Amino acid sequence: MTDAHKEFMDVFPVVAEELLAHLRSLNIPQNAIEWFERSMRHNVLGGKMNRGLTVAETLRILKRGQSLTEEEIFKANLLGWCIEWLQAFFLVSDDIMDNSKTRRGQPCWYRVDGVNMVAINDAFILESAIYFFLKKHFKKDEYYVDLIELFHETTYQTELGQLLDLITAPEDDVDLSKFSIQKHSFIVIYKTAYYSFYLPVALAMHMAGVKDEAAFKQAESILLPLGEYFQVQDDYLDCYGNPALIGKIGTDIEDNKCSWLINQALAKATPEQRKVLDENYGRRDEANVIAVKEVFTEINVEGLFKAYEEDSYTRLSALIAKVDHPLLSQDVFTTFMKRIYKRTK
Amino acid sequence: MTDAHKEFMDVFPVVAEELLAHLRSLNIPQNAIEWFERSMRHNVLGGKMNRGLTVAETLRILKRGQSLTEEEIFKANLLGWCIEWLQAFFLVSDDIMDNSKTRRGQPCWYRVDGVNMVAINDAFILESAIYFFLKKHFKKDEYYVDLIELFHETTYQTELGQLLDLITAPEDDVDLSKFSIQKHSFIVIYKTAYYSFYLPVALAMHMAGVKDEAAFKQAESILLPLGEYFQVQDDYLDCYGNPALIGKIGTDIEDNKCSWLINQALAKATPEQRKVLDENYGRRDEANVIAVKEVFTEINVEGLFKAYEEDSYTRLSALIAKVDHPLLSQDVFTTFMKRIYKRTK
Ligand SMILES: [Mg+2]
Ligand SMILES: [Mg+2]
Ligand SMILES: [Mg+2]
Ligand SMILES: [Mg+2]
Ligand SMILES: [Mg+2]
Ligand SMILES: [Mg+2]
User: Fold this and answer.
1) CA A116 → CA A92, B169, B233, B253, distances in Å?
2) Three-state DSSP class for A242?
3) Is A284 on the interface with B (CB under 8 A)?
4) Model-level pTM greater than 0.80?
5) CA distance to partner chain B, nearest, from residue A195 (Å)
6) Across chain A, where does the E strand assignment appear?
7) What pLDDT digit, counting tens, does each position of A9-58 carry?
8) pLDDT, tens digit, for every residue of B296-333?
9) Enclosing H/E stretch for B103
10) Which residues pair with B102 in a beta bridge?
């Protein structure tokens, strides 16, 4: 574990205890406190924590080598944890909506014995914790309202992306004519890029005292396409990645996902190929999946991805090279880029 | 429809259009906009709107006859609508968690054809609308942060009440030893009283410029017991009310609800009566319900309620008579009291 990682992890027990102490002060019965704690540990912990770690990392870059105070490190990491709590809120509910079985190598929360639909309310509680933390630790900061509004807006954006995803690709009603590259782009930018890429950087910018709206716009103009590229990789790896590396066996084809691959295939398919896709996408049988993958091979969707990856690298590097706002630094973005370019997991 | 009611209803189309215009500006595909609008109309409209109407009503009282400007009326009613949106968020998810069939005379949203678990995300979107409205209409007001924090805290309180309710009285695991009068009190205060009674008054107080924490505490000290009394009536009417008046046939006994009646009965039951309750509460058969109601009759739970009602009236009237904060008015509370004392619906 790096120092930065350790500093981040050390914040969890402190803030988890703040929540629990508050509950105890309300005299809420003990069984509810125990439930709350179990939900929090099950759902907030266990991920890769990349989003959470990015806040302090970005703040360090923005402060240009000036060392951070202990308080700044704590607060940046707490904002990182707020993203992890936000993600927990999204994932608990996403798993119910997607009828998923496992998450991070354990059963989804709603599938844990005795939980079931109570998980919906547990998701709400995970979201509420964010604003409890912000009030407790940032109320006196002049950027307090900016943080709250940023979390609200990011939450709303993610929900809108989720909505379009859910109604475009319902598992029980396969209709490929609903898919399009434009919808795919809207879904991934709203459902993933805002909260995973823009949010951690924007939080660090607020802590660094950035006020100029143009700086936020410039950051967003790189981080959203970067997040879109990341999600296209995710779609690619689901089908062509090494399950040992990505930690799961992809099921986007079976799940009728509006993924980048199927949209590329649909754009290029002959009427015969389209028929095969219509008849086999979003179905559970091995034979259906093989038929879809054959069309992908015929259309050379893998090759299209490789070209997209090269093009994205060129395009994003050019965008980064033009970053000139005095309160930003190209390093913020190259750090992301290095971490994800040609990733295999 | 009274003038106040009409003024309130006239705000809905204006603010609904604000949400839709914002969505259109994001270029979110049309099918998502239509879904969003359908969810909003199904879930926000159709209730009695008492909570929503209370904000402007309270503001008028606090302004002591001074007539409100058109802008003040609009903003007070918008805050009222924010409560209705908050309630929609709670009810959509509560119906899923309770496995309910109908709400306000129509199918629950998650049971509408094609909706299903997408309703969870729709509930989130209903919640997000609140903060969209607050930012759009109150950002320049010095009490903007107070409004946001009040909505956050009330939401969290309601979620904690919902949590205790869900784990105390799960439908599929009847265990009356989990019930207690203390838990009942916590559940109803957190799940109902904060958002239905305290929230509308506190919102009006913020608009009226009240800053003194003591005034809010004094209002809360009456509104929470008032809300508790209201919910005890609700529990009573579920069993002993006239279905033609309350608009539904109560099923609290079948649903294993931790209601005031069962808690009174448990507190007074002989071992034999307790056995009957254990064996019959929370079960679907007519015979089970009759057996429970017989024990209620033996214990004279109705009489206990009548005594509680008288006692509540005396106790709450005394509390109201002591309201002396210069920024409050006893009328705020007597209005509530008159509306609910000995209500039959
Ligand atoms: Mg999912
Ligand atoms: Mg999903
Ligand atoms: Mg994926
Ligand atoms: Mg219910
Ligand atoms: Mg319920
Ligand atoms: Mg009831």
Assistant:
1) 11, 14, 30, 22
2) coil
3) no
4) yes
5) 15
6) 102-103, 106-107
7) 999 999 999 999 999 999 999 999 999 999 999 999 999 999 999 999 99
8) 999 999 999 999 999 999 999 999 999 999 999 999 99
9) strand B102-103
10) B107
Tell me if A78 sits within 8 A of A131, measured CB to CB.
no
**What number is the ipTM of this complex?**
0.96
- Tens of pLDDT, residue by residue over A76-131, are 999 999 999 999 999 999 999 998 999 988 999 999 999 999 999 999 999 999 99
Element (H, E) at B102: strand B102-103
* Cα–Cα distance, B31 to B22 (Å, whole number): 15
Q: Which residue has the tokens 């009942």?
A: B184
**Amino acid at the residue A281:** Y
Q: Taking the CB of residue A99, how many other CB atoms lie within 10 A of it? A: 14
User: Contacts of residue A121 in chain B, CB cutoff 8 Å?
Assistant: 93, 97, 159, 162-163, 166
Inter-residue contact A98 to A171 (CB < 8 Å): yes
CB contact under 8 A, A160 and B32: yes
Q: Is A152 on the interface with B (CB under 8 A)?
A: yes
Which ligand lies nearest to the CA atom of residue A171 in the structure? 2
Q: Which two tokens stand for residue A113?
A: 């014995």
- Residue A309, amino acid: E
Gap between the Cα atoms of B77 and B12, Å rounded = 9
Tokens 């309201």 label which residue?
A: B323
CA dist A147 and B148 (Å) reads 12
- Amino acid identity of residue A234, one-letter, is D
